[in-house]
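U., I forgot to send this yesterday:
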Amino acid sequence: MGPALAASLQLAGHRPVAVSGVSDASRRRAALMLPDVPVVTPAQVLERSDLVLLTVPDDALPGLVEGLADTGAVRPGQLLVHTSGRYGAQVLDPALRAGALPLALHPAMTFTGTPVDVQRLAGCSFGVTAPEELRLAAEALVIEMGGEPEWIAEESRPLYHAALALGANHLVTLVAESMELLRTAGVEAPDRMLGPLLGAALDNALRSGDAALTGPVARGDAGTVAAHVTELRKHAPQTVAGYLAMARATADRALAHGLLKPELAEDLLGVLANGAEGDAG
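Result:
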């Protein structure tokens, strides 16, 4: 994420002066996206920069901030931006006490480590959390990167991040499993088969929410769902638990929104319960 955000800020007129990376992969990404920008230590990045991007894994962020503050690397008036979805601005309190200006700017986007990431930032929503007096500065930076600022309260950051992980990360798992099953069923180009279907399903869901639900669970086709479970148990037993969990969640939502008729739900829920008991056994 770091090289993509820095490259987008460079396009907006900022000048990247230093980058830090530990792994060979991160250094290669920096060389690709930020050529001629020197690779230095984190403390040296802070020494040279008025605006610092902390793009590290969530679990590493608190320790990094404390370490930079404790060693005197943070300068008063320095804009310190982290990109974690989980944390708000309070994780930067050690740097705030050292005089830094804390901003949490999380792009709601998946990154590949290639130049295409910069293009994908155009119109991308950013979860923004910052002290009220820095709100305009935070939103301005997001706009400079081509994004759309969305204000997230400090206490809502974990829920916000869970929602994104539920939608994006689990989607990758679902699609990958679906492609594997189609290959097992003899489909030569599962990506070509799924592309139009999943594209339409996503568009319908974003437009209509639960009203977009279709398929055997929403229709209450208990026999079809039972056949699915049987085949999955035979050919891909590792997918059964996920199928049952998603089918139950789908049934609950379909019932709540009047899409699944109550008289059909009983048999369907029985199939799902029996499937789960089979897993337990």
